[in-house]
Amino acid sequence: MREDAFVLKGNICYADTKDHLTVMDQGYLVCCQGIIRGVYPVLPEEYKSLPVTDYQDLLIVPGMTDLHIHAPQYPFRGLGMGLELLEWLNTHTFPEESRYKELDYAREAYRIFAEDLKKSATTRAVVFGTVHVPATRYLMEELERTGVITYVGKVNMDQNSTDELREKDAETSLADTAAWLADTAGRYQNTRPILTPRFAPTCSGPLMEGLGKLQREYQLPVQSHLSENLSEIAWVKELFPWSSCYGDVYGHYGLFGGQARTVMAHCVHSSDLEVELMKKNGVYVAHCPQSNINLSSGIAPIRRYLEEGLRVGLGTDMAGGANLSMFRCMADAIGVSKLYWRLADQTRKPLAMEEAFYLATKGGGSFFGKAGSFEEGYEMDALVLDDSGIRSTRALGTKERLERYIYLAEEGGRLAGKYAAGRKVI
Amino acid sequence: MREDAFVLKGNICYADTKDHLTVMDQGYLVCCQGIIRGVYPVLPEEYKSLPVTDYQDLLIVPGMTDLHIHAPQYPFRGLGMGLELLEWLNTHTFPEESRYKELDYAREAYRIFAEDLKKSATTRAVVFGTVHVPATRYLMEELERTGVITYVGKVNMDQNSTDELREKDAETSLADTAAWLADTAGRYQNTRPILTPRFAPTCSGPLMEGLGKLQREYQLPVQSHLSENLSEIAWVKELFPWSSCYGDVYGHYGLFGGQARTVMAHCVHSSDLEVELMKKNGVYVAHCPQSNINLSSGIAPIRRYLEEGLRVGLGTDMAGGANLSMFRCMADAIGVSKLYWRLADQTRKPLAMEEAFYLATKGGGSFFGKAGSFEEGYEMDALVLDDSGIRSTRALGTKERLERYIYLAEEGGRLAGKYAAGRKVI
Asked: Is residue A41 classed as helix, strand or coil in its secondary structure?
């Protein structure tokens, strides 16, 4: 239900910059037509007629953006974690994704995924589907109903995959994509399409050429994978020997930032040149710490990316990551940054809690425009956090309660409310 | 309630060696007088008169041992994670532990801790208290009531701590310890004392000398910390310049294995000599992966320890670790072993799920004797796991369901039953 204007009251906390949290205890968060008007210690006269939902002592924080998540991999989350990327794709991922050619299977799997995503802390997500148009359209319909704001991609892959999953050729892949775009255009309020070349190894030159054209024609955003695994990077170099770096392959076809808003998952092993290209083109990094652990990929140098001014957000990378929780994702991001500091490079200090929170909210949210903050003019995405189940003898301030919630969301936390673009989801 | 003999039915899974899981679907687990008689596909004639609890399609696995946990740190779990060990101790830990001189505070805090531990997957734990005798005795009483089997230590520290927390001198510390031992002797069924020099830097030579004597007099086990952090190790070398390694300090006073059953937390940066000494003396390593992340300590080389035949189990190290869940602890152990392989030493292959499960059950359980397995003659510790909340379109085998539960215990799992030493806890 969308209400045109309303007020939430509670202990409000949001990241305005990556180094600063604004905290207002017992503050008022005012939302009109889905847009934040402001946060106030005392409700201004002009808003006094608005309905107030008083969440009392609970925490109110901006919604979280999951910048990288594979919906069709949800059925095997937490399974088959003993492999590295390329073997994992062939053993687990491609066989599972093949099942989505059966719409009945896709329906059941996507219904579960959408229901669980709705219940999660995620208010916005950038989602991979499969190559299948009917299943991807069904995924969009399911996601539309959740109220979560999403970009959804029909995957493109015309080479280097299993016979069952690989698309026939670039032409077929492009025709299917165009049909999918035409079919879904303007159909949804919460869900929009995003171009999704799976990753360079599975996309022929002609396919990426065509996707670049579609991008320019429809002004679509782009998502893909980048420099996740060392074997993958070597393979890309073999397949595209002319490229100066992995990212240059996408760039060559107009699928790497610039006028094409682009998010690339992982960037664990990006070369200096690639980082430079990402920076120049404003490419988003979807940092997926748990997936990078699970698939033994390594640790992305997020401190470096932040210092260089790259755009960064967080992703679960379900099912490379097993957990849907963006709180867990924040804790993992902090954790791996500490191990990176300890084991790889002591000039890159670990992420502070404030920075991880920024990445999960405003950092990733900015891929959608003004989202992930409570500053004036932002779309109103909010979570209401009940931490009364995390018992302690200590009296804690709001910022401490938020820090604790990041680590303990799944051990006593409860999502007591969720709003996306001004609409109540939970 | 202890019943003399009973049978549990369900999908049974346990680790008999670190590389092998025994799985028996719809098997019968027979327990007489608290001891496992065996696991059977068909209930033998001789047990047919015993009461059977049929857990149907649920999983039944051995209970978990948390080899290293600080009860008094539970109130600040998930807080203050931006510091390294020594600063963290001074900023967060010592001030919190000082509060336990007030018995009212200790009562409230330990009641919460014990209640939450009871609800967790932990059936056995090796627990640090504080220096305070009355509070530690209260902790033992609370833990006794939970049914969880524990060793509990009154902490010794007569130097290098805050004025509020440090004990007056070695004599006072030893006298308090002797009084505590006399007072609690034979008082509990589930809870036993363990000698607990906090760590070498906070214990004077005379104190450790005296603890060594107490150890021999009472034949007590020992717990402490070892080689967690590089600054800590350098400090130990300064304080005990005669020592050949950190572990040698404990060894010098008879507090490092041999006839003194000993568990040492962390062992992240143990030297070759120290590893040799641990091996020779049968010292247990309590591997605390999440704590080693949170305090930026590093990654313990657990693959090496397993290859060298050291005794290893897992610990949460609450509140260096924020999560009480031993499932999370297993997932973290697997995760950090992958990053160790990737970033530190590619000759040390990551832990498999089976190995982490072994460490959490039989590996750590053996500190208590025969615990952590369903082999004949083991004490009957068991967990009943309901994974119906982890929804999937896939039909999974028991081993896959266990793997998934390790990653997703807190995202849809539910502990449907818990037994320790043959008694129903939940």
From this structure: coil
